[in-house]
Amino acid sequence: MPFRRPFLATLLLAATVLLTVALTAPAASASPAGSTPAAGTEGRGLCLDLNASEVKRGLREIGPPLGRSDLRWVARSGSMARSMDRTPNCPFLMWATFDTSGGTASSPVAVLLFRPGRYLGVTNRPTGYTRVSGFTPFSVTVTYRWPRPGDANANPTGGPVSSFFFQVFDRVFRFGELPPGVG
Question: Where would one find the signal peptide in this protein (predicted)?
Fold first, then answer.
């Protein structure tokens, strides 16, 4: 039966996706329809308000950029994709990107991950040349570059490599590569 192997592979993939969705689905609450998700990440009608307590907790946990008290994390202007979703239809995995205040392209960038109501962690040790290159309601893909000897800071030739992050309950799993010296 030549069709059996692809059919079984498709069936296994579908079962894995359904199990992942079932495991990551938030528990039902007694809140009325239209209410906000669990306190900690939401605010002003957003699933991920960058002024929320869990965002601030995440930034405190990773500490200031380069460990220097004179530097701070600044929300990246431009796409903060997951912060634009509106309650009550929040994605299972949300992210926010922060740059170093007064930094350049080579300055550390932090990508923090959240689920509704909770900070989950940082994708890796903050490094320069980091960007979110893709996302779904269940995953985030982060792409990294790095300078090689002789490269100008504005034009690194190392990489790119990407890591794929996905959440199951309160754990985040990573698949893929990281830049040299990170990990």
Answer: 1-30
Peptide bond into 147 cis (omega under 30): no
Contact predicate 115/170, CB 8 Å: yes
Give the model confidence (pLDDT) of 97-110 as tens digits.
999 999 998 999 99
Give the helix/strand (H/E) hosting 122: strand 118-122
Domain-by-domain residue ranges, the chain? 39-176
Q: What is d(CA 37, CA 43) in angstroms, rounded to the nearest whole number?
A: 9
Burial (CB count <10 Å: 0-12, 13-18, 19+), residue 106: middle
Helical segments of 25-68, H only = 53-62
User: Is residue 42 within 8 Å of 83, Cβ to Cβ?
Assistant: no
Which residue bears the tokens 């009608």? 45
Q: What is the pLDDT of residues 118-165, one digit of tens each?
A: 999 999 999 999 999 998 888 999 999 999 999 998 899 999 999 999
Q: Are 103 and 65 a contacting pair, CB within 8 Å?
A: yes
The DSSP output letter for 143 is E
Q: Please give the torsion angle defined by the CA atoms of residues 72, 141, 48 and 73, in that order, rounded to the nearest 10 degrees.
A: 0
Cα-to-chain-centroid distance, residue 61: 16
